[in-house]
Design a protein that fits this description.
By secondary structure, this protein is of the alpha/beta class. It has ten helices and eight strands. The chain folds into two domains: 196 residues, Spore Coat Polysaccharide Biosynthesis Protein SpsA, Chain A (Alpha-Beta Complex), CATH 3.90.550.10; 70 residues. Helix 1 links the parallel strand 1 and strand 2. The mean pLDDT is 84.
Length: 318
């Protein structure tokens, strides 16, 4: 069968300071892999500009105009910033049925590009999805390390099956990309989707490298929003928690009522008016939260299915 055709997909958002260096490093790596006959000659790099407000797209176009690079680089410019997950989706679906496999990697190259040949080896062993997994978080600062560990702990608590310390550095076969095409939900969480497809998977471990230029685009707010999307996309446990909370409050109000009645019959040491004021509040509040939780179960399911807005709009391609 020949060697696989590979697309390396690089999402970019305001990465004008690193995009040229990233291209050169990945081009050299891809050229070496072609010479060593690890991949086919039709491999290419695909840069996704996720609505950058700096000169990222201009840099990509400048590289494309150079004759020696024009065949190996392709670019997609989204009409606006749609988020990292949607940028990855745009790249993956654009190469559907055009390559044998695709690898997604961040533009800052903190994920170790030198592990890409190992991804290909795992793919040729029959794996449809290969996850790049950080071997540790010692390069993170204290806050980022703690929040990352908290995120994975919460996801596990919510019953969501994802690969710990995997951050979208991943190989997907064309079969997996075609399967991804069938996922139409608006709340996109690729780490969870690929972990639950059921295809044969493997892992490649790497050590994160420091960023060479620019700064991270993942603020605390974006990380929190991403974690929330992940939890709500694959778990209804938060809704169940509301239901359980309401039920527990309702049960406690019944127990409290029984206790007050017993106290009144045995020693009559009950504060006048306290029971008639407090018990209805607890009782009605518990019933309301309980009912709200039940309704929330259905709303949560409906919400994820009713919105059919486009996940991204492509402004131009090169």
């Amino acid at each position: 069968m020949g060697k696989p055709t590979l697309a390396i997909i690089v999402p970019c958002y305001n990465e004008e300071f690193v995009v040229e260096n990233t291209f050169l490093e990945l081009e050299n790596l891809l050229g070496t892999m072609v010479k060593e006959k690890k991949v086919g000659e039709q491999c290419f790099l695909l840069f996704i500009d996720d609505g950058s407000t700096d000169n990222t797209w201009q840099k990509i176009c400048s590289i494309k105009k150079q004759k020696k690079h024009s065949k190996i680089i392709r670019g997609i410019r989204l009409a606006k910033n749609c988020g990292h997950q949607n940028a990855l989706l745009a790249g993956l679906l654009s190469v559907k049925n055009k390559v044998d496999c695709a690898i997604t990697i961040d533009a800052d190259l903190q994920q170790d590009k030198n592990k890409i040949p190992e991804f290909i080896e795992k793919y040729e062993d029959g794996n449809d999805i290969v996850f790049g997994v950080r071997s540790g978080r010692h390069t993170d600062n204290l806050i980022k390390g703690l929040t990352a560990n908290l995120f994975y702990s919460l996801m596990a608590l919510m019953g969501t099956n994802i690969i710990k310390n995997h951050a979208d550095f991943r190989l997907t076969s064309n079969k997996a990309i075609n399967a991804l095409f069938g996922y139409s939900e608006s709340n996109l969480f690729l780490r969870g989707i690929f972990s639950n497809m059921g295809f044969k998977i493997d892992k490649v471990f790497f050590v994160a490298r420091p960023r060479k230029a620019g700064k991270t685009k993942y603020s605390f707010g974006k990380m929190f929003s991403f974690a929330l999307d992940g939890i709500t996309s694959f778990s209804i446990v938060p809704l169940k928690f509301v239901t359980y909370t309401g039920f527990i409050i309702f049960v406690l109000s019944i127990i409290m009522g029984v206790f007050i009645l017993i106290s009144w019959f045995t020693n009559n040491k009950v504060v006048p008016g306290w029971a008639s004021t407090t018990l209805p509040i607890y009782f009605i509040g518990g019933i309301q939260i309980f009912c709200l939780g039940i309704v929330g179960e259905y709303i949560g399911k409906i919400y994820s299915e009713t919105k059919r807005r486009p996940k991204y709009i492509i402004r131009e391609t090169i």
